[in-house]
Amino acid sequence: MDKIIVISVVRDWAMYEKCIGNNFTMIGTQLMPIDNRESNDRIPVCYNRVLDDLQAGHQCWLMFCHEDFEMQERISEILAGVDKSIIYGPIGGELYPGRILWKARVKGFEEQCAKDGSNLRVVGGDPGNNRTVDTVDCQCLIVHSSLVEKYHLRFDEQLSFDFYTEDFSANAFIRHGIKTEVLPMKCRHWSDGSIQKRFFDQKAYLDQKYPKWEFFGSAGYTFGKGRSVFRRLQINGRRIVSKHCPWLERVIMKMI
After folding, report:
1. Which of 49, 64, 165, 209 reaches 20 to 30 Å from 41, CA-CA?
2. For the chain, how long is the longest CA-to-CA vector?
């Protein structure tokens, strides 16, 4: 089993110690907390420093997670034997074809609550036999170092606190055809979350970054200005739309 390195950008050390630092499920992993109280750097900047410092050929799992993300079972057991060519997370979102229009859904389950433990509930959706998603949520993304090294994967440093893992998955898929999947695990996110102006500013940035693509995130928003069918039609010539609406496929293929 390859080493597991757990990377977190930390401003609330009490929360970090409760969720990660003193969590028995992290036994056997290498914890890498990054103190961000003074510098207040963007999270993708901090994560990319870790990726830049990786030694060539070093085989390990990289688990990027928020300080308030709590595993409730051993991550080493979850990662044992999984495919190293895929990006993972506990919860994500995808667009999928309906009979006429594209639909969106969240896959993967987790507990969620406020910082004080109130409002505890289970969120997400059953992935069934197909765990593939467009993106995974920023609270936790897991990727193997061999994939990072082979394709020089990096986080977009124009993003700050929102969408950086969603963009990581989207960019990996567009440029290299790398899949993202939800990985069933017992976990809790100690955050009800809040949507601020920053969130919509960063969504607008990604809309411009992906003018011919469209992706869905577990926060409930799409990003990218392109119609979602472009993504399916451009990868390996797959004809997903044709069984639902063949005339629409012909029109779109002429536009690409």
Report:
1. 209
2. 57
